[in-house]
């Protein structure tokens, strides 16, 4: 029996796809951004007709979207019932958190400054007034945040940039020249066996050379 290839198969869906009153051309269309929805298509390599159509909710354009309210204990740090990484350098820890929490989304919850301030009940934190310096409670949160040791192998590179999410949480109105989070020593790097590359802008002068001597390709941003 001859089996036709994917490229020769006829579409099994013959109906219409209508999103927010707009009919979607199934054979070929550009990605569409609506007020409430986004419509995207995926194709096989070298093909034009979509093999998959994705319809998702557009939170940015929908002004009526109500963000789910976080639970009061969202940022309560619980003791880990497993091994955790012990950091000696706070700047290095922040670079690791950037990778695990924001880039790979493996370390949760993903910290959001506005949420944290909304939930914090020990005092009123005013971001507009206090956001030009590191907010002590936020700094303390990240210092105390445990990082599971099992995630160490996920770190293959660290990339520092003044616009990284982690720094925007710590210092909302930072300008990029601050030295609060400079990496001062490279001792922590030994705990990450797959770390092969480091692009840095917050580090002391000795760090680049030390990392290179450890076999980690390091350079300034």
List the helices and strands and how they pair.
Blueprint: E1 17-19, E2 22-24, E3 32-33, E4 37-43, E5 50-57, H1 90-103, H2 113-119, H3 127-130, H4 136-144, E6 157-159, H5 165-170, E7 197-200, H6 205-213, E8 217-220
Parallel strand pairs: 6-7, 7-8
Antiparallel strand pairs: 1-2, 3-4, 4-5
In short:
With 221 residues, this protein is α/β, with parallel strands linked by helices.
Notes on the structure:
With 221 residues, the protein is α/β, with parallel strands linked by helices. The protein folds into two domains: 17-57, no CATH class; 90-220, no CATH class. It is built from six helices and eight strands. It has helices spanning 90-103, 113-119, 127-130, 136-144, 165-170, 205-213; strands at residues 17-19, 22-24, 32-33, 37-43, 50-57, 157-159, 197-200, 217-220. The strands form three sheets. It has a three-stranded antiparallel beta sheet with strand order 3-4-5, with no helix packed on it. Strands 6-7-8 form a three-stranded parallel beta sheet. A two-stranded antiparallel sheet has the order 1-2. It is globular. The relative contact order is 0.12. Mean pLDDT is 85; it is low at 1-13.
